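Lecture 7 notes. Example A: sequence first, then its structure tokens.
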Amino acid sequence: MEGFSWKLFLLSCLFAAEGSAQDFGQTQFICTSVPKDVDLCTAAMQNSGPAEDLKTTIIQLRETVLQQKETIVNQKETIKELTSKLSRCESQSLPAAAGPGGRRPGGKNTMGDVSRGTADTLAQLGQTLQTLKQRLENLEQYSRGNNSAQANSLKDLLQSKIDHMEKQVLSRVNIEESKPGHRNESDQRNRVETTLSSLHDRISDLEKGKETRPADRFQLTFPLRTNYMYAKAKTTLPEMYSFSVCLWLKSSTTPGLGTPFSYAVPGQANELVLIEWGNNPMEFLINDKVATLPFSIRDGKWHHLCITWTIRDGIWEAFQDGVKQGHGENLAPYHPIKADGVLVLGQEQDSLGGGFDATQAYVGELAHLNIWNRKLSATEIANLANCNSKVLVGNVFSWTESNIEMFGGATKWTFEPCSSIN
């Protein structure tokens, strides 16, 4: 067969073999020789009878080859994309850039650096929020009816889902506001936190009924150590020559609960601070002077704490669950508590209203913070701890929803003081 093309001969014979990869029904394949210099399609079109089958075979073969080429191109693009994503993941997880203990040299510990792409995290959160919103609509429909048991069950499940999702997102999207290049991520995070707060508020309204619920029956929850989650009093404190501060706390975080509250004034960030930092005992600061408090509350249960102070000789007393646990003197004696400051819950202030450090943030639940500009008696404090007093509230700061605004994902839930003790 010298001078003839073996190419078509071999291909047409190959398709005739048993077990061919392409099923062409009852078509019969014939091996036909074609002169070397003649175009295959032209030769096929000039023949009659079996040549028509050959023409069909060639066209189908070309289509198959084109499809395979397209598949290969798509697979290459997919492999390229996956390789790029794998490279990014590996570069984010490499420990070489970290210093001792896994922290970057000179980096500030924010207790929750981003461990994966913020865009991916927010996209996943968006889907979750849509699901939660739909379930919240169902909850609201249940609450309008008479089946309160089903409504409460659905509410509890939704609350659990939100808490779990919130912890995951906040731990991954803890972005320093001052870092360059993260403004878009920060804006997205703020929108997420606003949505979360809105969901919590709506569920709280369903749970307790805003029209009949007392204004002080709520608690604040700070689920994670961050440098942006906090609450702030809308009013300031007056100048005081004595005071009493009482509150309920529930936490089991170690090491250290963090800072339940801090009061800063111009020129003095530590005018009044309650803090338990690291492995140190709980301390109370007045004008940067320190008193060590004999409290032991890191057991995950609610505890009522009260601290009293008078300017003369700086005498202080500390009460836990209505019982006096310690006292002392010479704590900032003859230093009046200054007015016109900022009262923050959940963070320690290094500057007026800011300068938060995540390592000093409070983690846990907080309720019924009240402040008086006088020293409460032991009987009054015992009545507060045992819920025997119905009208005793702070006269310079009282625990009501209208007095507090929340930021950064801090959440609000129903709280009944003594019935919540466990």
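Example B, a different protein, same format:
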Amino acid sequence: MNLYGIKTCDTCRKARKWLDAAGVSYRWHDLREEVPNEDTLRHWLDEVGVDNLVNRRSTTWRGLDDPDREQVRTAEGALPLLREHPALIKRPVIDTGQVVLVGFTDQTGTTLLELP
């Protein structure tokens, strides 16, 4: 299982703490240090869609100009911006190889424990 996020993100910290307490092993990827490649981003976009992957409440989103925001309406348009601005990715992203989950709630944890 791979967990993608940012060290200072409270939701990422919550996810890591929960996974550690549940004894779930994972590999941590800091999005600012390890920007996902295009294939990984395409996979996430295919699995969860642009609306679920792009963090439109982030400071980075608010800093984009209107043409860039318009570009993010499609997966193809979002790809270069997500590579250039990884903080636009909602966090955390959990990629189990079977499923991609974005964000973390208690329900997310339950879903992870129910996977084979």
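Note on Example B: Strands lie at 2-5, 27-30, 93-95, 100-102. The radius of gyration is 14 Å.
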